[in-house]
Amino acid sequence: MVSVLDAPVDYVYDVITDYKHAYRINPAITEVEILPSDRGDVVRVRNLSEHWIGPFCFKIDWVGDIVEPRDGYLKISTIPELSSFESGSAVWELRSQGERTWVLHESRLKPDFFMPPVIGDRIMKRQMKENTLDTLNRIECYAKVMLHVDMENEPDHIHDALKEGKDCINSLGKIAHLSLEKDDP
Question: What homologous superfamily does CATH list for 2-164?
Answer without folding.
Answer: START domain (3.30.530.20)
